[in-house]
Every structure is written in C-alpha cells, then in structure tokens.
Amino acid sequence: MIRPPPLGPGDVVRVIAPAGPFDAGRFERGLAVLRERFGLRPRFREDIVARERYLAGPDPRRAAEWLEAVEDEAASAIFCARGGYGSMRILPAIDPRPLLDRPKLFMGFSDVTAIHAALNRAGLCTVHGPGVAQLPLLPDDALEHLRTLLFGEGRPPGRDAHPEPGSGLVGTVTIRSGRVSGPLLGGNLTMLSHVVGTPWLPSYDGAILFVEDVNEAPYRLDRCLTQLRLAGLLDRVAGVAVGQVTKCDDDEADTRGIDVIREAVRDLGVPAIEGLAAGHEDANFALPLGARVTLVAPAPGDGGRPRLLFDEGATE
C-alpha cells in the first residue's frame, strides 16, 4: 500500500463535495478549523455549494471537481465536505492512477466509503475521518488525534499500551477474543454492501474489517451483513472492528442494531471488538484505511481494554 506524505503547516488542501449538499454555516466553521487549528490552506470551487435534489450538484459537476482536485499540483490532500449520498455515482470518473504516481491524502466517511474502496483497491492508503462540515462538532481530543494522524506525528503504539493520539483507538467490548494484525479496510456498512459486485471493491482477505452505520433499521443491517456473507467477503477477514452504530434500534421489534452486528460478527470466528469512537457521532476519530493495524480483543481476565493499534500511520 502507498501511504501519502504527511501534511505540514501551510499545505494546500482541496475540499470537494462528491456526495450530498452541506450546511453552509458548519462548512465555514470547518474551514476555520483547517486554517486556524491545523494551519492548512483550503481551496475549493465556487460551485461546491451547488444543490440538485439530494446531491451536491449534478454528476458532471462533482466528477469535474474530483478531477480538478487530483490534478492540482499544489494540493497535498483532498478532503470531503460531507457524505450524504452520491459518491458511487461518480466512481466511473475516478481514476486512482494519478494518485498512485503523486499521492495525496484523501479523507471522508459515510457515503464516501465508495471512494475509499476504489482507492484502497488500487493500493492507496486513505483516512476514514470527518468531513469538513463535521470538524466544528468534534471534541478537542478527536481533533488532536486527527491532526496527529494527518501530520504523521503519531508514535508507534506499545504492545499493550493505551494508544496515544494518532496511534490507535480503544473500544468498549470484546465480541470474540484474540489478537490479529492486517490491513484496515471498510467504512460504512450500507455503502460496503452496495459496492459488492462492482469493479471498485477491494479484497478483504486477511484484512481487519471496520464497519459503522447510522439511521438503519436492524433488519437492514442484517441484510447488508448477509449480502457481504453471501458474496464471500467475510469468509477470510482476519478480524472485525465495529465503530459507532447510531440510531439503528427498533423499539417496536425490541431489537438493537449493535446486537444484530454483534451476532453476525461473532459467528465469523475471528477476533472482534466493538465500541470504537468512529462513525456518525460528534466524537468521530479518524482511522488509516489500508494501513497495517493490530486488533487486540482481551478475553475475560486478561486485563486491558479492547483496542485497535495503528502499526502504520496514514502517511509515509
């Protein structure tokens, strides 16, 4: 996997909207975070604020925006304004090869999982992290974790130490105990299931699969997991790390989304943890997709918390 160079103060960052429209006020506050907290110089097209139904403008606009960001030789990174829906509609316009020749950091989450999949499949590490419009909502420790990850300042985690900012995340529950290492891949569970059968899905053989989701009924989560299982994607994963499963409960059916995911993951027979602070809540901690990580799932009595340690950062 190719890891892009780390960011530095004064670097230009292209901001794009490949999916849905965003709140203008939060976007402006997010730009201020990039400038004032991170010392970066965000650059974007004037029509990034475009709206067409549930999309940030028509497909040609969003595809052209992607191409311009990739071709911008002054830019060191490409950050997404938000998710929503629409990234998979422009996948045919996304050619990963220029980013393999001149790597840039790419960051986004949720619907942007489709682009992560395409870039990870091609061999580029990316950052599963907040959109620019989410940055003003992040707590200080999540912002510091993100800054450390983007600027390549994370320290290699100790074998059993609590990870420092940019070096890993702790979870809350061991689903199945064990310890395993491999490349970290995944993202939004619903989007992963929708990319199945397309040319943009990476191989999950030997990978640590990360999943999160929001606003999906438990039966829909079940359907997504069943789709991945029937497609053979879950047969050879080395481990599973579950992030935030937000607003996915069904009170009438007395069913919680996390219980559906936990049951499906436990049946895989691989080390697995849940409760990572990554996903659709304000405390959305960034993850280095494609980089090598170690999943630690302690058994009862072993001591220590479930955790995901970044053996490699998002950058070279």
Brief sketch in words of this structure:
The protein has about 325 residues and is of the alpha/beta class. It has eight helices and 14 strands. It folds into two domains: about 10-150, Rossmann fold (3-Layer(aba) Sandwich), CATH 3.40.50; about 170-310, LD-carboxypeptidase A C-terminal domain-like (Glucose Oxidase, domain 1), CATH 3.50.30.
Describe this structure in words.
This protein has 316 residues and is an alpha/beta fold. It folds into 2 domains: 12-150, Murein tetrapeptidase LD-carboxypeptidase, N-terminal domain (Rossmann fold, 3-Layer(aba) Sandwich); 168-310, Glucose Oxidase, domain 1, CATH 3.50.30. The protein is built from 8 helices and 14 strands. β4, α4 and β5 (126-128) form a beta-alpha-beta unit. It is globular and about 55 Å long. The model has no long low-confidence stretch (mean pLDDT 97).
List keywords for this structure.
316 residues; alpha/beta; 14 strands; 6-stranded mixed sheet; Rossmann fold; 2 domains; single chain
